[in-house]
Structure to design on (280 residues):
């Protein structure tokens, strides 16, 4: 029997690579996109991929996607909440609209998708995979919107797992470290735009840190894990009878987990010193 999987945010990066890998393995993929050219590009990769217009922050768009998908199948094997953006800046000056946007995509969007599609997940073996992040451990200064969103994502879905009456629903959090994808450049561009109108005072106070973080983020598009590493793990999790609740991917993700286990004061001191040493 065909196994249907929904992947949000499949236009690039991890989502696109995962769609490709799973389609090659025989799964039927509904790949969430927001542009016609991304739909065409994905559908040209493999006949098992159907591009679906899906903005996870827009209820009407999610409903439309549901209407299309539910006409094709009454059973979704897995939902992969992958759509995400990464925003940051000093908490003291964070534009509140920016914070809301961060949570709209990474948290509320994923919850909306789960609420909408759970009625199509009634078999014994359904799964929701959330592409969380090592940021969920919350040890990264100046990217607190992103970190908080990933922590919130993990918290909400852990509650869902405990509360949920879907008998055997499995909910899995994947926490990659740095992966080379377009998210980093997009993130710097979005942050620069958001902080364009921020006061001179903020610039003077945090210029060095923000410059360092922007340069570091741009470098991340070249270094780090490959999208294939995450796609391979997703494939493994989907075929595992008894997947874990949480997976770390990459040394940096294990380090973030370790740091988060230390007493908060010690963890903060290490992070602060580390940042100081790197920003000259
Ligand atoms: N790259 C990393 O180092 C890393 C590490 C850990 C976790 N992650 C997580 O991995 C996931 C995928 O990110 P990526 O690195 O592959 O970055 P990416 O290439 O920028 O992919 C992000 C995807 O999310 C989509 N998206 C953004 N806003 C959306 C919205 N409102 N509705 C629907 N889709 C939306 C984008 O679509 P458009 O093209 O239409 O904007 C794009 O397809 C994210 O959740 C990210 O937080 C990434």
């Amino acid at each position: 029997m065909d196994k249907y999987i929904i992947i949000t945010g499949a236009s690039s990066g991890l989502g696109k690579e995962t769609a490709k890998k799973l389609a090659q393995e025989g799964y039927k993929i509904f790949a969430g996109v927001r542009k016609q050219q991304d739909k065409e590009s994905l559908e040209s990769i493999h006949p098992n991929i159907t591009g679906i217009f899906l903005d996870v922050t827009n209820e009407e768009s999610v409903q439309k996607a549901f209407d299309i998908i539910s006409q094709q199948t009454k059973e979704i094997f897995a939902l992969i909440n992958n759509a995400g953006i990464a925003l940051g800046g000093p908490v003291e000056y964070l534009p509140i609209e920016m914070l809301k946007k961060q949570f709209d995509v990474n948290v509320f969007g994923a919850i909306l998708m789960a609420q909408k599609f759970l009625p199509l997940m009634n078999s014994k073996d359904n799964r929701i995979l959330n592409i969380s992040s090592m940021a969920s451990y919350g040890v990264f200064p100046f990217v607190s919107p992103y970190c908080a969103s990933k922590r919130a994502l993990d918290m909400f879905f852990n509650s869902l797992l405990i509360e949920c009456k879907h008998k055997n629903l499995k909910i899995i959090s994947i926490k990659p470290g740095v992966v080379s994808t377009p998210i980093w450049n997009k993130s710097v561009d979005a942050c620069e735009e958001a902080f364009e109108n921020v006061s001179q005072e903020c610039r003077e106070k945090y210029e060095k840190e923000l410059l360092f973080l922007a340069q570091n983020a741009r470098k991340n598009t070249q270094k780090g894990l490959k999208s294939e590493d995450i796609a391979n793990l997703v494939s493994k999790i989907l075929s595992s009878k008894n997947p874990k609740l949480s997976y770390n991917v990459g040394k940096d993700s294990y380090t973030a987990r370790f740091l988060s286990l230390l007493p908060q004061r010690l963890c903060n001191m290490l992070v602060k010193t580390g940042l100081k040493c790197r920003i000259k």
